[in-house]
């Protein structure tokens, strides 16, 4: 069974489209169709059915993809990594992720790549932007605090940190001395990452703090903006520990009480499997995965 045909099959399966697979593989549509037809002859059953929006895998195709998909990705990544050790891998690496994590954590981990001659271009955005930038081929690697939900992408956890409720010392003292902490914190301005209150709700739920749904006073995808306002004495928020450790030690921030405990935030390195055919991308991914023990 041809490795090229298997890669074509996996790409069509993940894209649900012969046209998109052809673009990703830098092949013509007829060539992709021929690869699929030839593979169907080998396996002895149809792999896809036509639909108005592309192609739909048959049950047999789904079973085959589950059997060979990850193994094929691993083999291609290993081959690309091997090539990276014996060839010039300089060029531009496009990375997209949360602005605060890229600046505070990932930038230092990219230093070996920069020293090897690879140019890095950082782009920032939400989970949705990270996903679209990778799928559309605008970026090579992504980082997000959300697990991958699109089966066309792969991910692996590279960093874990605690999520801490913080405020300025004055605000923290006012909340701690309140007769009713729940009521007091519900009346304090809330600063958050998004309107869905992702980090906030997890902390409230874990600590069984029931407050009415509130409208945040400020929403920012860069958590450093929230940190700045909180330090200035305005409201409270939840921050990853790497963003507030220094300020907690210096007294600019104070940690609010968590009756039951805090929760953790996991950060994931994300990539499109086909991107690993580029030696530079495969090398960068492996380097970052090798440093994933640098969790706080």
UniProtKB/TrEMBL annotation:
This is DNA-binding transcriptional LysR family regulator. It comes from the Bacteria. Belongs to the LysR transcriptional regulatory family. PANTHER family: HTH-TYPE TRANSCRIPTIONAL REGULATOR (PTHR30126), HTH-TYPE TRANSCRIPTIONAL REGULATOR CYSL (PTHR30126:SF39). One of its GO terms (molecular function) is DNA-binding transcription factor activity. The keyword Transcription applies. Transmembrane segments: none annotated. It comes from Reinekea marinisedimentorum. Residues 117-290 form the LysR substrate-binding domain. Keywords: DNA-binding, Transcription, Transcription regulation. Residues 3-61 form the HTH lysR-type domain. InterPro entries: LysR_HTH_N, LysR_subst-bd, WH-like_DNA-bd_sf, WH_DNA-bd_sf.
């Amino acid at each position: 069974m041809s490795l090229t045909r298997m890669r074509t099959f996996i790409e069509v399966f993940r894209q649900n489209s012969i046209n998109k697979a052809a673009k990703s593989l830098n092949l013509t549509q007829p060539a992709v169709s021929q690869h699929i037809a030839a593979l169907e002859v080998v396996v002895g059953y149809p792999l896809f059915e036509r639909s108005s929006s592309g192609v739909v895998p048959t049950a047999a195709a789904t079973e085959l993809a589950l059997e060979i998909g990850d193994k094929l990705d691993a083999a291609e990544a290993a081959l690309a990594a091997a090539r990276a050790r014996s060839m010039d891998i300089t060029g531009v690496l496009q990375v997209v992720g949360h602005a605060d994590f890229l600046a505070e954590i990932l930038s230092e981990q990219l230093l070996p790549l920069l020293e090897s001659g690879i140019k890095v271009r950082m782009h920032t955005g939400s989970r949705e932007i990270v996903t679209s930038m990778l799928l559309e081929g605008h970026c090579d690697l992504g980082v997000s605090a959300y697990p991958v939900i699109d089966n066309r992408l792969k991910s692996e956890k590279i960093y874990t940190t605690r999520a801490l409720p913080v405020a300025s010392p004055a605000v923290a003292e006012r909340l701690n001395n309140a007769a009713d902490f729940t009521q007091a914190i519900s009346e304090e301005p809330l600063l958050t990452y998004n309107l869905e209150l992702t980090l906030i709700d997890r902390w409230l739920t874990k600590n069984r703090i029931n407050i009415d749904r509130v409208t945040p006073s400020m929403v920012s995808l860069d958590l450093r903006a929230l940190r700045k306002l909180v330090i200035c004495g305005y409201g409270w928020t939840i921050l990853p520990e790497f963003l507030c450790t220094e300020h907690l030690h210096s007294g600019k921030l104070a940690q609010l009480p968590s009756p039951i405990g805090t929760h953790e935030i996991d950060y994931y390195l994300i990539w499109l499997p086909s991107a690993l055919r580029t030696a530079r991308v495969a090398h960068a991914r492996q380097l970052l995965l090798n440093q994933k023990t640098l969790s706080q």
